[in-house]
Design a protein that fits this description.
The structure is a homodimer of 696-residue chains. Chain A has 24 helices and 30 strands. With 696 residues, chain A is of the alpha/beta class. The longest helix of chain A has 19 residues.
């Protein structure tokens, strides 16, 4: 429970200062200015009072109970102070002080020291190296933070690892006139994590939507679980910075080299139903719409405008984002005919023209509310000086309050003029999300609509596969591990694939030319032969692969040649495999993402993966819905369906392979990397024809 | 000369009204309120005065000279009024009234009528169905417009076809505190075009940058010429709406179906050096930076920040936009060491930390000004309550005023607090472009930097090709036209290609099996044979193509088969051509874009163009630089360089073919569509192996 942190009845400021501009003074000033209803106890070694409040020499001297300590003293003294917090029975501490793990080993030691003391007494730690929290509940007014923005009460809570970005978001909400519920910026996050805060806010009935800013997760797996739980309860709008970071580990396999830290975060957002943003301004503006508007039931927008160009711009934004601006039904057009000015354009966008008043706007909105082919309403409202702009605003506010369909408004005006300030006040008090230009307004409606899609999407559960031989796989992995081998042999790889039901081209591993030839005969020519060696990662480059061997003679000379060139006197193992020409080359891979589990990758093999990096990732376990999404989300997905003259591939079979790979990884997390490259896909079925598995 | 429009010494309002909210009243009110220094003559049939000004019954009654008439009367009366304008010697008229070509045939007739009268007297027409103009020159203060925003003087001029978007842009500049030079929104643009206004502003010394909003060009060719001329003089920042419009003509060739109206506008912007935007807010914010800052000499940004997260976000924006945040030189780091607080991070971004004051900010900026590895400075400045924010602002303003390197500032503060308003005032008066969040600020610097790249790019001139046989081509085209043939035969196509030096696979057109076989022998097997028929656009689908015919027997049976299946008793023509296996399939095409000329297209052929639509376009004539850009700008350009184990293609040869095609189109504009698909490209050379030309 984070109540002592977010709902403190008494706060002690350890490091209170009498100097106006110091943090130890600003925090008290902020609490006072915000009208904190609890008790404030400044702790100061000598001053009798700070900012008019009686000061105490130590926590022990404080007469009453304290829920929360605000710690601003040098880092070296922090472990001792946490000990004192524990002794005083304080249940939470915000450590503003820096000088801990962010500064290297010595700081990390200090951090470990205060954490040990905190654990001893059950003191929960927020920070260190952080800003603090805000709770705008008017019964409490807790501003435990040194920032300068004073938000009004509202329904949106904000958590940001970075205090700077947290401040930007808080200020942007403030500038938009949007209230805030709670705020938290927890810096080093040594104890209380973003996940824990998220879970707490998930249960906060006063919180309607959550804004999250992060630069990465200490425990992505925990976050994944919590985020899924919370995102099912209320909208979580998130942004992660560091998206262009060259942070992807330089792994040797395709999967490893394409899946970076950043992809993982995006995938977490996607899997859990979090709405992701790349632009903090877009995020905050979207939040304003989430604070008052319902979620659109679909992607069809009806536009009402009293000026042409901005409607074109909005339509562009919708079009580029997959939203539809559909034709109106004949019934709606007839209805509009009776209510609009003669110059009005009765299509979608509905141009009510600049001289339209409240009556025309209202009639147009009512028509769209009743139009079954429209899920949301976008309004361009320029305050033409020759119209009663207040009347228009009143009608928009009334329709917004109905809550039947979401409304956003591009409100184009000059707010330095008193008349238009009043028009805006009417819109705002009616809960109408207003933006100053068409793109901004349209993007907010796009966000609402996309969130609707996210909420209606059900990825389902991972499927069980019958007849899987997990024990056999475990024993193969165990044996390889026992001899310290990290890259599995072809025999091992194909045995594992077969154990998981993954279709493979018929194969034998052989040691002699005679065995090779009888394998070829058993499998049926044409065949492929490959040197089975972990040393040769790129076998074909080394001349360790020969394809389309049509008879025993060709097979014999290929094997002889490889043995001579690559083996010398050392006898090689060879994989003899059915040659399957003419299919579409696919790649299914997987790699471990640090502290998260496996990422599964799918794409078109060969030049597509190399030149286009056209691949899709999902976090394992991958459900059938997700596997299908992987197939449809690559840029080259049209190739799977087959173009003019070509046949499409058996997508159901490919989807099954992705799920089987996911199942294998879930059962055997010691697999670090795995590539089926290529999987040859045909109109009817698909077969892994080359595979690689690397273990811990 | 547009002086009578933009610098009127006297304005007559035809349709002046005594009603407060009517446009005929608002326009006079705006002129008065803006402090217009010229004379205002209301024209009213009966009222003795309007808004305190003496009114006249007709233009003829006006005692003095009139430069500009503002016309707000019903459309039917406009032709007569223009006649009267001419008689009065009025040189320009703004026609606000609607009801002309935008309403169909009847309106178009009225428009033609007033244009005829205007021409007779040399009256220049602005509009109709438009807003008007603004000139903020304090000596004039001309506000000939019915909008409600009152901009201060400045260096940015704004032209917008759509009045609504013009108003949004004007208001956004106003909200940012950025002054404006002139404004024009010309609606139907029946006479004075955006091109003419652009040229006029190009010569206006007081105009430092131009903002342009359009939804298309009536005369794109004229615009292309003017824009190139003006964009060479000053930055032109442009946005075109309708970018997602399904307006691409449904042409049958690849080129036709991929090149829409929208691509053409983008290409015009690119070719002329106009900086294009998709978001009006980004555009206006960038304009603020252009108004005061120099253009960066390169793409390397130095970041100074007093808070961590926003610097990460800015770095993301730079990274995603191709800007670099490079390591600082050892010398700069040493210099910083001596001047920064001990907690500061002396890398790039330079984190001066939240407690940094003016001294630290100034020292960091000075270090970056002298750092040769940095072209521009990005500042994150959060107004920490415990610092002297005015001092920081003063130092930033001083460095900005030096004009040595461009500076933009993400200024994070609460502007409802007086203290920070003062900090902002210091920055503003110093000409520092300030934004309220890191992404917005970073995007403005990206725009400045991209513009620098545009200015430094020299596309050069189209090259002349020696030994071109234009006369032969003209005669072929003439002959085809004479018999009403629009699709050229294979013989004609290949003859034209050869006349322009475009390498083609050796070919013969034959009529009999015997001719085919001797052609095969002359060319050398293997060969391809194709039915030469304009009726068979997709020959291979119809079975009209046979490849890799290794000897006379194979050729004979292929020809016999086609003749039987596709010709029956009607004798067919056949193209026999050298078979060139193993190259990379490319496509070079062209199509006519309405009123602009030819668009040339390049891409990888086959599935790439079909599944990925991965093609590049340029407006003809295409220079060598532009042709190279086409090769490098496709997503699959890595395939041209060759991937692991594959050879790259002869890019110089491909570049030459693109230029030769462009030359052919310039010489023979009657060519409507043309496709070389594929051009087979090899390590050494490339050859068109299938071609199609369609004429008017």
């Amino acid at each position: 429970m984070l109540d002592p942190l977010f709902k403190p009845r008494a706060v002690a400021i350890v490091g209170a200062s009498t100097k106006e501009l110091s943090i130890g003074n600003v925090i008290i000033k902020n609490l006072q200015r915000f009208g904190y209803t609890g008790k404030i106890y400044p702790i100061h070694p000598s001053a009798p009072e700070v900012r008019g409040l009686k000061a105490y020499k130590s926590l022990a001297e404080v007469p009453g109970d304290v829920d929360l300590a605000h710690i601003i003293i040098p880092s070296k003294q922090v472990p001792q102070i946490i000990e004192e917090c524990g002794q005083k029975g304080i249940r939470a501490a915000i450590i503003n002080s820096a000088g801990f793990s962010e500064l290297g080993a010595e700081g990390a030691q200090l951090q470990a020291a205060f954490l040990a003391n905190a654990k001893k007494y059950g003191v929960r730690i927020f920070g260190p190296n952080c800003q603090g929290i805000i709770n705008t509940d008017p019964a409490l007014n807790a501003y435990c933070n040194f920032t300068f923005t004073f938000p009004g009460p509202g329904a949106i809570s904000v958590v940001a690892l970075s205090g700077g970005v947290g401040a930007v978001i808080m200020q942007a909400l403030f500038d938009l006139g949007v209230g805030m519920r709670m705020y938290a910026s927890n810096g080093n996050a040594s104890d209380i994590s973003i996940s824990e805060i998220l879970r707490y806010w998930g249960k906060d009935a006063g919180c309607r939507a959550i804004i999250l800013y992060t630069e990465g997760f200490a425990n992505p797996k925990e976050f994944l679980e919590v985020a899924r739980e919370v995102a099912a309860l209320k909208p979580v709008l998130a942004m992660k910075a560091g998206r262009t970071e060259q942070g992807a580990k330089a792994a040797s396999s395709h999967t490893g080299s394409l899946a970076g830290v950043d992809i993982a975060t995006e995938l977490i957002f996607e899997k859990t139903g979090i709405l992701a943003f790349n632009d903090e301004e877009d995020l905050v503006r979207a939040a304003m719409a989430f604070a008052t508007q319902p979620i659109p039931a679909g992607n069809r927008v009806g536009i009402i405008t009293n000026t042409g160009g901005p409607a074109v711009i909005a339509t562009d934004v919708f079009g580029a984002s997959g939203l539809d601006v559909p034709k109106l039904s004949e019934q709606t057009i007839q209805r509009l005919k009776g209510t609009q000015l003669p110059e009005a354009a009765l299509e979608n966008p509905i141009d009510v023209v600049a001289t339209a008043g409240g009556t025309q706007f209202r009639a147009a909105m009512d028509a769209l509310l009743d139009e079954a082919g429209v899920d949301s309403i976008f309004i361009n409202f320029v305050t033409a000086p020759f119209t009663d702009t207040h009347a228009v605003a009143r009608e928009i506010a009334i329709v917004s309050a109905l809550g039947r369909k979401p409304i956003v408004c591009n409100f184009m005006t000059d707010l330095t003029q008193e008349r238009y300030q009043e028009t805006r006040r009417i819109l705002k008090e009616g809960g109408v999300p207003c933006y100053a230009n068409p793109t901004a307004a349209a993007k907010a409606l796009v966000a609402l609509t996309k969130y609707g899609l996210i909420r209606r999407r059900d990825i389902g559960q991972p499927e069980p596969f019958p007849n899987i031989d997990s024990a056999k796989t475990a024993s193969i992995l165990l044996k390889a591990k026992a001899v310290g081998r990290k890259v599995l042999s072809a025999r091992e790889v194909y045995s594992i694939l077969e154990a998981y039901g993954i279709p493979v081209a018929p194969w034998r591993v052989v040691e002699t030319i005679e065995q090779a030839i009888s394998a070829g005969e058993a499998i049926g020519f044409p065949v492929v032969v490959k040197v089975d060696s972990a040393d040769l990662d790129h076998k074909s480059d080394a001349g360790g692969v020969a394809i389309n061997l049509r008879d025993g003679g060709m097979l014999r000379s290929a094997v002889e040649d490889m043995q001579a060139r690559l083996g010398g006197s050392r006898p090689l193992n060879f994989l003899v495999q059915k040659f399957l020409p003419g299919g579409r080359e696919l790649i299914v891979g997987a790699s471990v993402s640090q502290r998260l589990g496996h990422l599964v990758m799918f794409g078109l093999g060969g030049i597509y993966v190399e030149a286009l990096k056209d691949v899709a990732f999902k976090i394992a376990p991958v459900t059938r819905v997700e596997a299908k999404e992987m197939l449809s989300s690559i840029k080259t997905s049209a190739l799977l369906d087959g173009l003019r003259g070509e046949k499409g591939v058996d997508k159901a079979a490919v989807v099954r392979v992705i799920q089987q790979v996911s199942c294998l990884l879930t059962d055997h997390p010691e697999i670090q990397e795995m590539d089926l490259n290529p999987v040859m896909a045909f109109e009817d079925g698909c077969f892994a024809v080359d595979g690689r598995i690397k273990i811990l």
